[in-house]
Amino acid sequence: MGIARMCAIARTDTEKGAVDQIRYALVAQDGAERYVKGGQWSNLTNVLHWVTRHGNPETMRFLLSLPEVDVNVQDASGLTPLHWAVKLARRVKVALLLNAPGVNVNARELMRRATPLHVALCSVRVTHEMRRPARIHHDTVELLLSAPGIDVNSRDVDGTTPLQLAVLAAQYGLIDERTVKRLLMSAGIDVNARDSRGRTPLHMSLVMERRLWLIEALLNAPGVDVNAGDAVRMTALHRAAEKHDVDVIKLILKAPGRIDLTLRDKRGRTAADVAQLYDPTNIEEKRRLSEIVSLLTPPPAERTSFMRRLWQWARS
C-alpha cells in the first residue's frame, strides 16, 4: 500500500495527519475515498499528487479504484496528477491515470496553460529556479497520443503547439526521430501551425542546429505548405538560402508538390536574391554560392510567367 513509505517521509503535522487519516480510513474501510478526494498532503498538494510523485503504482491503483477520487485534482500550480506523472516520466503511472474514468487528458496548468502533452514534449525542465535540458521520453508521448480525446494542436500561453516543442527538442538532440514521426502521424495534426513570429514547424527546423532527418520528415508530412511565408514572408527556402545550406536547399527542392522559386519576401527578394547577399571570401565559397544560385534560379518559362503576373498586378 505504500503507507509505511508515506509514514517515513511525513515531516510536517499536516503530512503526519494525512497518513493517520488514510490509515484509519483503510482499517475502518470507511471514508477512504472521501479523504483521498479532499485530503491535503501539504499546503500545496493533494494525497494523489504525493502518490504520483513518490508512491508506488500499487498505491496509485488502489486510490484510483475509489469511487469518489478526483483524478483531475490540481495543486497550487494547477498541475494534475497526470501532469506530474508525465513530467517525471513515470510510464506505468501515466498509463494508470489515462485509464482512470473521467481523466482530462487536455487539462491545463495555471502559469503556462500547458497540457500534459506540452509537458511531455518540453525539452527544458525548471527545478529550483534552474533550467536544464531534459530528454523526451517516447513511451510517455506514445501513451498520450493514443489517449482518446487528446488535442494534438493545443496551444500554451505563448501559442506554442506540441509539434513546435518537438521541433525545438530535435534541434537540441533531445528527442528521437520515431517520436517526431509518430507525432506527425497523429490524426488532425496541423503541420503548418504558426508561432508568434508566423513561423511554421518547417521554418523552426532551420533556426538553430539543423537536423536533416527532421527537415525531411516535415517536408514529407501530409499537408505541409512548403511555400508558407513567415511574418516577413520568408519561406523555408529563403531561410535555407540565408544560411547557404546546399543540403537543405536540395531537400526542399525535392519535396512533394510545386516549389515556387519566384516568391518574394517583404523586401521584394527571392530566395536566390537572399543567397547572393553573401560575399564569398574564397574559391570554395564562390563555388558553393554559384551552385546555390543555380539551384534557386527559376527556369525561363517560370520567370516569364512571374513577370506576366507582376505586370498584371501593376496594371490592376
Secondary-structure map with pairings?
Layout: H1 3-9, H2 13-28, H3 32-38, H4 47-54, H5 57-65, H6 81-87, H7 91-98, H8 116-121, E1 124-127, E2 130-133, H9 138-145, H10 162-171, H11 177-184, H12 201-204, H13 212-219, H14 236-242, H15 246-253, H16 271-275, H17 283-296, H18 300-315
If you had to describe this structure to a student in words, what would you say it looks like?
By secondary structure, the chain is mainly alpha-helical. It folds into 3 domains: 1-70, no CATH class; 75-92 and 103-190, Alpha Horseshoe (Serine Threonine Protein Phosphatase 5, Tetratricopeptide repeat), CATH 1.25.40.20; 196-316, Serine Threonine Protein Phosphatase 5, Tetratricopeptide repeat, CATH 1.25.40. 49% of the residues lie in helices and 3% in strands. The chain is built from 18 helices and 2 strands. It has a two-stranded antiparallel sheet. Helix 2 runs antiparallel to helix 3 (32-38), helix 10 (162-171) packs antiparallel against helix 11 and helix 11 packs parallel to helix 13. The longest helix is centred in the first third of the chain and has 16 residues, at 13-28. The radius of gyration is 26 Å and the shape is elongated. The chain starts with a helix and ends with a helix. 36% of the residues are buried. The mean pLDDT is 84. ANK repeats lie at residues 77-110, 158-196. InterPro entries: Ankyrin_rpt, Ankyrin_rpt-contain_sf. Keywords: ANK repeat, Repeat. Pfam families: Ank, Ank_2.
